[in-house]
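Continuing the series of single-chain predictions for the mutant panel. This is the parent chain; the variants come on the following pages.
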Amino acid sequence: MNDPLTLASRRAHVREAIRHAWTGYLRYGRLGDDLKPVSRGADNWMNARLTLFDSLDTLYISGCRDLFHAAAQQVLACGVPGSAISPSKVFEYHIRIVGSLLSTHSLTGDGRFLELAARAADNVLEAMDNPSGLPHIHFRFVDGKRRPATWLLSRTLDLIRSSYDHVMWRNSLVGIGSLGPELRYLSRETGVARYQEAAEQVLSRVHTAWKKLGGINSTRNPPLWWDTPPRLSGSYRPELQSLDGEEATLGSGGDSFFEYLLKEQLLEGSSSNRLVEMYEWLAQRLKDGHANGLVRSLHGVDFVVSHRCEYEHLACFVPGMLALGASQLKGNRSSELGLAKKLMESCIYMYQSSPTGLAPDAGNVCGNEFTCTSPQFLLRPETVESLFVLFRVTKEERYREIAWEIFSNIEKYCKVHSGGYSGLENVNDVNGSQNDQMPSYFIAETLKYLYLIFDDASISLNDFVFTTEAHPLARYNRCDRQGVKRYRSECARDPAHLSFLSAENVLLFFTISMSLLRCLSVGSSQLKKVLVQRLRVFLKRKKLASHHMV
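Parent structure:
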């Protein structure tokens, strides 16, 4: 299917889907995080206007320039999102907010988006300011320079919670290890080293753990869970990080980390021996997948699975990753491209074997038949991402045709005529209900890849690398280092708020009171011990800092 008229027609259909999804979000999502298209409301699970930010580059790439310019003005007017009341998930904030702003800068050259990205990335770096150097799983993003009173209250609340809520001080491999390309790009374009240094710090920590597991000869993936202690913790020792717990898989909890082992290498000046070593190890593990349990066959189709034989739609990024590496890295990698094609078939199979033509989110392939454990279709992008990459690398039209089938079935079963698209509760029921969720990644990733697979001239893989949220970053420096300063005066500037009596601060006072009451349930003596320890560490650091002042 090389007919330019047909390609143009298919692009137009996908573009119209992007408009339909976006206008539904504007009309009913009210600039919240995600649209609830059936009930015509918003799901504000992050309080960060996720779809507004996440959709910017898709609107630009697809030619919806009127929608893009209006959305860009809203982003510039509202500035960097963050809430002192509701902690944000750091990983999601980073890939959706920071990544989108950097991609918009990369595509347009507009330095205003680079500055906003730097301010958002500074929030992420503050979440890494703890003894481990790894980001917390959740964090209250507050600009201490503009809102010092709110910042102080939010940090006090976290200090109190740290005495009894230990879950908040652990993060997954994805949560700590999926920040690299965005931070490296930001350092490259601004000349500010601290972002790349933060990425290197995380990579060094994971690489050290991987080496302890055997390095290139390791038969285990890095750990799934990592300790990220409170900022004032005095007991953390990185060498005591447990390596005996649950290991990460190529699905939930590990996917983006493994994906970035390749993609960080593709950014100019980002290649390091640690990235190369770990990616080559991963590629070899996948090639030996039948022996080590990473790949399992069912009805002649090879699936990427966890050690419990679980298939996840999330793992369908793997064929695209292998194909991208085969086309962009040095050496003869025909075996990796062949493996990518084979693994792609299992992701295609999950779509084509379903009554709706849409894939379930998870299942089990241990027996002689596929057992569906999560029949929902969540509008995920991983399969169309891999179809896009494989088409670009191989030029095989079959991948385009399959992508069109998937798009057609999304239109048939997921479109909500009042605006937006919804996932499905059960892909095996053609008359089943929709789940009333349109995540921001549907516009940011799924529709973007479906558009680009029918647009040969846009976003070359030789010039751009896609982040895990499908935000394309230029592989080579495209702007002068003065870009940020040149646009600084035009950027949204939040005024300083010095009062303790704002509504947000009053709510913080109330939350702190409730947390103190919670602390009483764990015992006043334990609370006193924890708080005294934190205070001693804080005073010790202050004393050391004063000795080193010039």
